[in-house]
Amino acid sequence: MDVIGWVSTTSVLAVGVLSLLAFWIWKSMAVFKTFEKIGLSGPPPKFLVGNARQLMKMGLLRSFTDWGKKYGKIYGIFFSRTPAFVVSDPDLLRDMMVKNFASFPNRARQEMMDYKPWNDNVTMIRDDHWKHVRSQLSPTFSSGKLKKVIPAITRVIQNLEVFLKEKARTGEEVELESMAGCFAMDAIAGAAFGIHLDSLANPDDPFNVNGHALFHPNRVVVTLIMQFPFLAPIFRFFGVTFIPLKPTNFFQNIVRQALEERRKDEKRYPDFLQLLVDAEKEGGAGGPVDAEIDHSAHLTTSEKWAGRGLTDDEKEANGLMFLVAGYNTTASVLAFTLFNLAGNPQVLRKAQEEVDQKLGTKAVSYGTASELTYLDMCMNESMRLAPPGFLLDREAVEDTELGGYQVKKGTRMMIPIFTIHTDPDFWPEPQKFVPERHTPEAKAARHPFSFMPFGHGPRNCVGMRLAQLEIRMAIATILQHYTPVLCDKSVYPPVVDVSEFKIIAKDDLWVKFKPRN
User: Fold this and answer.
1) Which end of the chain is more exposed for a tag (fewer CB within 10 A), N or C?
2) How many CA atoms lie within 13 A of 170 on its CB side?
């Protein structure tokens, strides 16, 4: 090729590349007009990254709270070039999550976790696949089956008592998030996998070490994918994942081995993997489902799913999800509830009086745990101020309408739980810890969608009753024998933030435990 021909070819290629780039930029800018076209306000997006950079700079909790004050209870934002409605109006949430659930049955696609073994868990799957798996899992969290894991929870509580006895004797400060994390890890290991752990006494146990590693995602990957979601499959191609591969492989092997043991062994294991194997043998889960998690009316599927149990991939994925969701929820609520009790001595005394009256000197049981109504109010108020699920999402599966605005198929819907839980329109003096907000009378007078720590509707948290049971039993036992008090390291009220996709206290949660006479 002569020089003139080479220059001509190069020029054509350059013009083509520049044209494609110009077209892509034009399309990107057109996307940013999505909400302007339908008359919906929201924070101005930045070129290419939308509002992602603002979210990361201001933090998730502050961003949605500040935007809610400025733009109201429905507005639009952009994750990179992906438009998303942000909805905190309770009536609209009821429409989206229950009344018009058929238009919003799925969670938004999570590019960061769209790979095995994670993408077959109940929070990731969609449409009929989700309906099938949810219908299989719901019976495993019924009251009758929860009672089967009580021995595992009791054993972990006994280990917690040994730990606290020594701390009370020495007067040493205890960081509650760390302590509650060990308790949650041991409880889920026993309840889900039938594994006996004592992480407080043996922090170097491989299960504990890998468990904590599982909850530390790659921050560089998170930062880049939040701004440029299209990078997710590229990272995976090179073996770079959101959740570290080493602990993922460790727990995947544990689930596989445990499932094989339960298939071959005649011994009955009192854990959730055993219940999943039982469902497999019976051609699908059966038995009663409690009203709180019974959404059978929304779980009708096509004939192809009838009489089918869970696949091995689905069992592994949901076994891993039991670990992650069970750990984060239990650890967070247990730690914040104890800290709020320590920071409010009058509330603490009332909670201890109830424990004394209901339990006396007896160990807490499944039955007595359900009778601790004031303790339950304290737990709910802690979840209001520090909700473990601080941000939920849905995705429209068809063109529809919400609040007078047109919602296109595939649009993401964001639900800022923390913002709703601290909105003065629903909660007077929202930063105060007031358990009486959760009396039956107060709940009846309040919109039910102004408080939803475990979500609402058919896609609420399937394992919420297990988490609540573990937390009630642990706190009741602690209050029987000890009084948590603030110490020199305590910063009360706690300033909450988000780190690695879970809610934390910026200054940690330090207390001392005094033995009761």
Assistant:
1) C
2) 8
